[in-house]
Amino acid sequence: MGKTSVAITVSQQLESKFRDGACFVELGPVEDPSRVAEAFAIALGLPVKKAQPLGDILQFVQLKEMLILVDGCEHVIDESAALIQAIVSSSVGVRILSTSREALRIEGEWVFQLPPLTSAPIGKELSASAIASYPAIQLFIERAEMATNVTLSDRDIKLLVPISNKLDGLPLAIELAASQVSAIGLEKLVDALGEPAVLEWARKEIVPPGHQTLSAMLDWSCQRLSELEHCMLRHLSLFRGSFEFEAAIVMMQGTMDGSEAAIVLSQLAAKSLLHVDRTDVVVRYRLLDTTKAYARFKLMESGDYADACRKHARLYASALARFQDPNSDRLLQKAFAGQIEDITAAISWGFQSDGDISLAVDLVVGSLPVWQSLHLLQDRKVYIEKALLHLDQVNVSVDVELTLRCSLAFTIMLISGFTEEFTVAWWRVYDVAEAAQRVDMQMVALLRLWSQQVLLSDAHKADDFSNKFQRLAQTSEGALWTGIADWYRGYLRYQAGDFLGARTFLERAASESRQSSIDIQRKVYGYDCRVSAMSHLSNTILLLGDVGRATEVAKQAVELGLSEADDVSVCSALSVATHNLILIGSIEEAESLAREFLKQAEERALGNFYSLAHAYTGLLKLWKGDGGGLKQVDDSLVHMTNLGYPAWVRAFTAERLHVLIEGDLVRTIGVGTTALSTSEPNLWGWYLAEAIRLNGRLAQISGDTLEAERLFLAALEVARSQSSPFWELRAANDLVQLWSYDKRIHGGRVLLEDICSKFSSDMPTKDLIRAKCLLRSL
Fold it and tell me: Which single residue of 8, 454, 727, 760 could bond 719 by disulfide (Cβ 3.0 to 4.6 Å)?
């Protein structure tokens, strides 16, 4: 494992400092502990005249000044320790350098833990030369090039990062893997390292038996283990990552009691078969991958594999069940980040033919919040679907089925948006809930289906779902759901352009203070609806003309969203706040917020919100004159269309046209534009006035001033009907500008002064600044 090579190098460097030089005692071939002293005598050049030459050895070293290198003490550790203690006690000029998997534990011993060879970290972008600077990579390159007579390319060297990380920095493992490059190639080597056959890869050169293969090396290391140590090592091999002391104790239940297990665990650590990772908070243990593969193979041979897998699965099922306690510390969620591979392994075993399906289902249900917190949504979906597929084989409650079906539908929404798969999944939730007379879960399903129709701008279907929901909310079971109902009713009115009506409901939803109602939102619905209500309230208030208040509410929504930390709350707040800043013309601030939004959406693996964030950053590039933002926006629009978010598509299509016109990019980068279709006004809702105004701008650019005037007046009328000074001002600015060319000054001044007076704060926006400039020019 590299100890011998290091020790020899050290002794060669130190030999000249000792008057009588150095000698090498090799204990590897010594199988009989009683012959350790004989091996020492032979190495020192003493004739072996009797069975126990200890006296001759002590007499010989008494006046010597020399370094004795003793290699491979672990299998005869007690005898080696006793003899070395006697030698250093008999001579002041002799120094001993020994190699072993465990300490000698004698007086005066200094222990140096030889660390593995370091390798380039996975997931970090490094050049080939930087990767090749790591010792583990250097050794692999040297041995691979010797085996193939071919110089590895930069591309080859970059392939070595995952390979070397699987080899634990062990020189023997690295050398054996490098020897296989000519036979299977680098691309296939990573997968091959996960197979048991890797333990039997052999070196071509003549070496001691214990260094011929990894299996032989580990056989050699384990031959002195007690049966209890062997048993624990085998059972601990099921852990994919690190584990705590208590987990090891659970794995050994029925085999040894807690005090015995503690002793055995410490013995395995002392013999370097377990690595100990100490922090200020906790001590964790782990097996190197090579040791793990060896011990797991032995576990399969022992006949205890199924029982050990069941203990492993129960361990995590129990830990996850404790996490479901609403009083659990939310930071506990982070504790599972390093154990997700163990959870997935336990689930996979449970669904196997010789596994435990009931236990696997419990694991899936228990791990639902963990998958979401780690943003592993695709994995979450796969395991939920697998659990649902096996439900007919186990006896589970309707609560479990509803939890799984609701989580599946919610995950589909986060991954794919409002697709047909989303619709089918939520109707299945509704059907199961209705059959079980579960009012709460019926309401959850209706809310989701309702939200789909709101975003699709299908007012008739949205009203139908709203009415069904309201009827359920009148029951005692539905009384706590009024906050969510207010949020949806407000959002529906917001989408339809009824901003005054929206404000009433959104304010009620945002101010929900009943903790029981908020808990229901988080537990069943997936997030705190107050954040979304507050976010859209800020946009509603902006469109109603109170810019300062809108900015305050948007800031509060972002702060609440970040404090809640759930995916939808964070991204919903950042999305609307970014949109508000773009609308008022605060491009620098919007750019900063959009970058944070993009980062959060990417880290949380939310495809729907990522498309939004990507579109915002593209728009902001366009506002700064970067034509490259156009493709970014267009790609996002395609993705939003595929996700089933037509309301978003319409809003961003309008904003895209707005920046192209105002930034004069139509001429600058030669982008063709077409008028926005407003033949179905109800589809545009809150953006209808802006869509009509933008069509007026296109007419004006084409030279049709009469059509432009007609459209500006129409936009003005729509904005007034929606009680939106914000949209009114945009249309009025264009209209008054057009009138000024015909000297219709008086009517323009009256119109602008009237609309500007409707704004509730002096906080400047791009449109207000333009209006004041126009007024000064009239």
Answer: 727
Position with higher pLDDT, 685 vs 389 = 389
Region 339-343: mean pLDDT is: 89
Sheet containing 22-26: which strands, arranged edge to edge? Answer: 22-26, 66-71, 94-99
Q: How far apart are CA 275 and CA 101, in angstroms?
A: 12
Determine the residue type at 394: V
572 has a pLDDT exceeding 60: yes
Instruction: Tell me the per-residue pLDDT of 440-497, one tens digit each, with 9 for 90 and over.
Output: 888 888 878 877 776 666 666 777 777 777 777 777 666 667 777 788 788 888 888 9
Residue with tokens 């309301």: 647
Residue 642's pLDDT band, with cuts at 50, 70 and 90, is: confident
Q: How many CB atoms lie within 10 A of CB 43?
A: 17
Run of H or E residues at 501:
helix 499-510
> Per DSSP, what are the bridge partners of residue 286?
275
**CA dist., res. 245 & res. 266, Å (int):** 10
Which among 602, 636, 604 is positioned nearest to 618, based on CA atoms?
636
Q: List phi, psi (to 5°) of 94.
A: -100, 135
For tokens 């190197």, the residue is 288
Instruction: Let me know if 771 is exposed, middle or buried by CB neighbors in 10 A (0-12, 13-18, 19+).
Output: buried
Confidence label for 332 from pLDDT (cuts 50, 70 and 90): low
Contact by Cβ (8 Å): 643, 419: yes
| Number of Cβ within a 10 Å radius of residue 413 | 24
- Picking from 754, 757, 748, 755, the residue whose alpha carbon sits closest to that of residue 775 is 748
**Sign, Cα dihedral of 49, 54, 57, 58:** negative
**Does residue 329 have a pLDDT over 80?**
no
Provide the pLDDT for residue 202: 43
Task: Report the pLDDT value the prediction gives residue 542, as an integer from 0 to 100.
Answer: 95
Residues 6 or more apart whose Cβ sits within 8 Å of residue 97: 7, 10, 11, 67, 68, 69, 70
Task: Give me the percent of the chain exceeding a pLDDT of 70.
Answer: 87
End-to-end Cα spacing for the chain = 88
Give the phi and the psi of residue 645 in degrees, each rounded to 5.
Answer: -120, 70
Q: Measure the CA–CA gap between 430 and 451, rounded to whole angstroms.
A: 15
Rounded (to 5) percent helix, strand, coil in the chain: 70, 5, 25
Q: How far is CA 106 from the centre of its chain?
A: 47
CA distance 430 to 445: 5
pLDDT for 673 equals 63
Q: Are 604 and 380 in contact (CB under 8 A)?
A: no
Query: What digits encode the pLDDT tens for the residues 233-267?
Result: 899 999 988 888 899 999 999 888 888 888 888 88
Extract the tokens encoding 755. 């609309």
CA–CA distance, 222 with 101 (Å, rounded to integer): 10
CA distances 247 to 236, 285, 313, 363, 722, Å, are 9, 10, 11, 16, 62
* pLDDT averaged over every residue in the chain: 83
